[in-house]
Amino acid sequence: MKIIIIGGGASGVSAAIRIKQNKPQASVTVIEHLSEIMKKIHATGNGRCNITNKNAEHYNEVKDFLESLGLVLRQDTQGRMYPYSNQASSVVDVFTQSCKNLGVEIITDCNVKHCDCFDGVFRVYTDREILECDRLILATGGKSQASLGSDGSGYELAKQLGHNVSELYPALVQLKSSGKLCRQLKGVRVKCNVKIETNGEIKAQDFGELLFTEYGISGIVVMNLSSYVSDARLAASLDRTVAILDLVPEMSESELIEHYEKHGTFLGILPQKLCSVISRQSGDNPEMMAKCIKNQRIIITGTKGYDFAQITGGGVVTDELDESNQSKIHKGLYIIGELQNRQFECGGFNLTHAIYSGIAAADNI
Fold first, then answer.
1. Measured at the alpha carbon of residue 64, what is the angle toward residues 38 and 137, in degrees to the nearest 5?
2. How far apart are CA 358 and CA 131, in angstroms?
3. pLDDT tens digits along 80-115
């Protein structure tokens, strides 16, 4: 049996390793258009690689797989799992060594131009040669952070093989604002409740750490809510989107007023720079100050785009895939990882899906 995997990221390499673990005699080739595999892994988790999460679906399967490669994990207080070394390079090294030990062929600096299927045989047209295989796995990733390998080419390959792709958008990404507030508060971090309001309707809300920046707002809570912001609709003036911040969700307006009347300041609750801004906004009126704290509104003009997004939203329609990620259009074709229209929150959930989708495809093969 000959298997070709297009894409040398987490999902594709996981699939390659698992196939060889299950069926050592199988011929497995990974095609990667960059000069090395798993380049995006180096940038995950601020270089530490938050590879999975104890609360993620299929965590146990992914953990067992990683341990089978000799990768030891450590957990933080929120269930996020990292390599014991706290170095993303350890993950890449372990996966790369496993490929070598198992006999996975890796072709780098190779671009795939086209794919087709006739009489159950898949043909992969590259800028070097035409390859044939019995099973084909598309694992190219999305189109976020193209410099790390995800250039969006996999969506076109899926279309060539008859699949539909839903609307794409940058996800888990920072948000931009045209207001002065964010620039004034640049560098300030707060734990707060954030709502996304579009055309007067609350679309979603979440609690977590937010960072004010020169361009707008960042932080895990912002990135988790970013999928509710449409760059296209904002650019076309179809939406008016506002981020509403409750900077002290544990206290009511009346409790905040009482605190101010007793202490004459909010310095015991909020950072000094934020206190100064709220003071200017409200004219030091306690009632207005409390309202500003509980209902700080930031106009959103868009996201930071694909170059800064952790993942791509949208993708190959999942109704066209079975539980093993095999195509319902072409038997023997598998579409895994970020190419699918399946997105999850920050914290190792997306990488868990990427790895597990590769394992599931490999086990089915």
1. 45
2. 21
3. 999 999 999 999 999 999 999 999 999 999 999 999
